[in-house]
Amino acid sequence: MIVPVAVALTGMIFYLAFYLYDQCIVTQDTYILAFRGSLCCGLDAGEVKRNVLSESAGRFRKKYVGISRIEYAAEVGKSTVTVEAKGTMTGTGWGFGAKWQVQRTCPVECIRKAKLALKIKNGLEAH
Question: What is the pLDDT of residue 27?
Answer without folding.
Answer: 94
